[in-house]
Design brief:
With 248 residues, the protein is α+β, with helices and mostly antiparallel strands. 31% of the residues lie in helices and 29% in strands.
Length: 248
C-alpha cells in the first residue's frame, strides 16, 4: 500500500495526522512520545508507537467485526495507520469498569471497586482548560454535540465496552477503564476514532493485577515498553504475529 504522506493536518501529544491522496483518508503516525499531566511530563520511548499501533489495529478490527464503525482502514506497516478522515468531537469519553486513577482523587470510591453498570464520563478535550468533566447541559451549551449525538455516543460506548471487555478477559486482561474519542465522517455519521492502546486504557493482568499501561509512566516506574509489549503479545493471535514477523 502506498504510504506517501501529504500535508500534516494535526500534531497531537503522541500522534501525527497526514492527508493522503484520497481526500477522505488520512495516515495516522504513532510517535514514540509519551506524556502525562497535560503534557508536563514527557519522554520518548523507542517502540512505544510501534506497539500502540499494533494494539489499536487489533482492537479496532475486533470492533469492526462486531459491526461498530471505526476510523480504522488498515495498518500497512507498524506505526502507520490508514484511517477515514473524521471531524473530531472535542470530547473524551471515559468508561470505568473498576475504580482507579483520577476517580479516586475526586470521589469517595474504594480502589478496585467494580461498577455494574459501568460509569460513563465525558471530559472537554481542551488543554487550556485542563480537560474538565462535563455534563450534558454544558456540552450542549458549548455546541460540542447535539442531544441525539450524545445518545448515539453513549450507546456505541456501552457496546464497545462489552465487546472489548469480553475479548480482553478471554486474553487474560482486566479492563478497568478506557478513554475513546469520536468524530463525524463525511456523511455526518458518528464514528469511533483516535486509538485504543495502553496510552488511553488501563490494562491489568487478570491473575497478578500487574499494571500494563501508561500508569507505569505516570507513577515513575520502569518497564513501560515491556508492559506494552506484553499487551500486544497477549491479544495478537499467531496470524497477526506472523504477518508482522513478530517473535515475542
Amino acid at each position: 500500500m502506498n504510504l506517501e504522506k501529504g500535508n500534516l493536518l494535526y500534531r497531537g501529544k503522541a500522534k501525527d495526522i497526514y492527508q493522503t491522496s484520497q481526500q477522505e483518508q488520512v495516515i495516522v503516525k504513532f510517535r514514540d512520545d509519551i506524556t502525562a499531566g497535560d503534557g508536563e511530563k514527557k519522554e520518548t520511548m523507542g517502540l512505544k508507537g510501534y506497539y500502540n499501533s499494533l494494539i489499536s489495529a487489533k482492537l479496532f478490527t475486533i470492533l469492526e467485526n462486531a459491526l461498530i464503525k471505526t476510523q480504522y482502514i488498515d495498518l500497512p506497516e507498524p506505526g502507520y495507520m490508514l484511517s477515514h478522515k473524521l471531524e473530531m468531537i472535542p470530547l473524551e469519553v471515559i468508561t470505568r469498569n473498576i475504580a482507579a486513577g483520577s476517580l479516586l482523587r475526586r470521589f469517595p470510591f474504594q480502589e478496585g471497586q467494580t461498577f455494574n453498570p459501568p460509569i460513563i464520563q465525558m471530559d472537554f478535550k481542551n488543554d487550556e482548560y485542563h480537560d474538565p468533566m462535563l455534563n450534558d447541559d454544558i456540552i450542549l451549551a458549548l455546541g460540542l454535540a447535539t442531544s441525539d449525538e450524545l445518545e448515539i455516543i453513549r450507546e456505541i460506548t456501552i457496546k464497545i465496552n462489552g465487546v472489548l471487555k469480553n475479548f480482553l478477559e478471554n486474553k487474560g486482561l482486566l479492563f478497568p477503564d478506557f478513554k475513546i474519542e469520536f468524530g463525524r465522517d463525511c456523511d455526518d455519521n458518528i464514528v469511533l476514532g483516535d486509538e485504543i492502546s495502553p496510552d488511553t486504557c488501563r490494562f491489568w493482568d487478570r491473575e497478578t493485577k500487574d499494571i500494563l499501561d501508561k500508569d507505569l509512566f505516570r507513577k515513575g516506574e520502569s518497564g513501560v515498553i515491556e508492559a506494552y509489549q506484553k499487551v500486544a503479545n497477549m491479544i495478537l493471535d499467531d496470524e497477526d504475529k506472523k504477518k508482522w514477523s513478530l517473535d515475542f
